[in-house]
Structures are given as C-alpha cells and as structure tokens.
Write a structure and sequence with these properties.
0% strand, globular, 54% helix, 72 residues, 4 helices
C-alpha cells in the first residue's frame, strides 16, 4: 500500500482511505490500490487549488471509493 500525499480530518492518508473501501467481487489488487491512491492524490492536488479538501468531498461523495471504482 502506498501512503498518499493527503490526509483527512482524522489523520488517515489517502492510501489508508482507499484501503478501507469495501466492494464486492474480486479482491482488490495492490496495483489497483496504488492506482486509486495516485488518482485520489491527483484529484486532491487540483481541488486544493480551489480550497477544497477530502473532508469537503466526504460531505457529498465517497471520493476514495469512486477512485477505486474507476481504476478497477
């Protein structure tokens, strides 16, 4: 698991947030976890330029889960 560059309000890294996502089907591979964490970090890099954080996204969507879904 990669750690990721961003953390949430509770200090969990983006890598930890992606790892915590539960989905049915085949087990998530390390490559998928890495890809989802990198995507999440990239999205949060762009969002931070607009003053938006992972905490803000948590109010409206499961961004870590969405990143995992699209990379699978």
């Amino acid at each position: 698991m990669i750690i990721g560059r961003h953390t949430d309000q509770q200090g969990r890294s983006t890598g930890e947030r992606v790892t915590a996502v539960k989905r049915g089907g085949k087990p998530v591979t390390d490559t998928e976890h890495e890809a989802a964490t990198r995507l999440l970090d990239t999205l949060l890099d762009a969002a931070s330029e607009h003053g938006v954080s992972l905490h803000d996204f948590d109010f409206v969507t499961d961004l870590p889960g969405a990143c995992l879904d699209v990379t699978r």
